[in-house]
Amino acid sequence: MNTPKDFVKFVFATLHEKLLLLGFVKRKQELFTIPETLDSMGWLGLNRAVRTREGMLEVNPVVGVRNQQLERLVAKLTAEPFNEFAPPSLSGNIGYMGPNQAYKAFVFSQNSSVELLARDLVDALTTDGLPFIKNHADLNTLLEALGSARFAMPEPAAYRIPTALHLLGRRQESEEFLKRKIIEIGERTDPAAVRFKAFESRIRQLNLGLIE
Asked: What's the rounded Cα separation, in Å, for the pair 156 and 154?
């Protein structure tokens, strides 16, 4: 471990080994999932920041939940390819899931015990991350959390809230949400506005039963 690159590889190899024991499956570089229900999975992204000068590696664990039925329909309504594992429907830094409700990262250095710090990260997943996944595996609880600024970004949530309402049979609420969003967008013609207006047209037809 004489170079930062070797050190980073060692840290992530240690983390990967421990995550596999928890039941996580590696999907791509630093992205893991864990099955929860037939329609949902737990999601874990290990964001990294290498401080080369200090010889440190900061790992930011982002824990999330992905509802496959919801994401499949969002992909259809936005006319975009369906990705099996990304993005999560809901996610946040693991620190906000714990009792302190504050950002938490894990800083590894070549002068500290990688094993102990990796164990701390896995302990946080066990005590805070996995319960968060379980508590939001149901579409109703997922929908409720999508209205929270802590775990949902406004733009992605704007697509998922009316779609989740549609899937739950709450078509009128879906329509009301869409109306408010269209009023908010107004006369904007930027790409984000155009994309949402196209989505709104398709889901409205779906709510009315004009398309399947």
From this structure: 6
User: Maximum distance among all alpha carbons in the chain?
Assistant: 63
Note the pLDDT tens digit of each residue in 70-89. Answer: 999 999 999 999 999 999 99
Structure tokens at 112: 């500290």
**Cα–Cα distance measured from residue 90 to residue 151, given in angstroms and rounded to the nearest whole number:** 6
Locate tokens 């919801």: which residue? 70
The total number of residues written for the chain in this structure: 212
Provide the angle, in degrees to the nearest 10, between the axes of the packed helices 4-22 and 114-124. Answer: 40
Query: Do residues 178 and 162 make contact, with C-beta atoms less than 8 angstroms apart?
Result: yes
The radius of gyration of the chain from alpha carbons, rounded to an integer in Å, stands at 20
pLDDT number for residue 1: 46
Instruction: For residue range 92-124, list pLDDT tens digits in order.
Output: 999 999 998 999 999 998 888 899 999 999 999
Q: Quick one: pLDDT at residue 66?
A: 97
| Predicted local distance difference test score (pLDDT) of residue 29 | 80
Task: Give the pair of three-digit tokens for residue 181.
Answer: 């969003």
3-state secondary structure of 109: strand
Question: Within 10 A of 27 (CB to CB), how many other CB atoms are there?
Answer: 16
Nearest to 202, CA basis, from 178, 176, 173: 178
Q: How many CB atoms lie within 10 A of CB 41?
A: 24
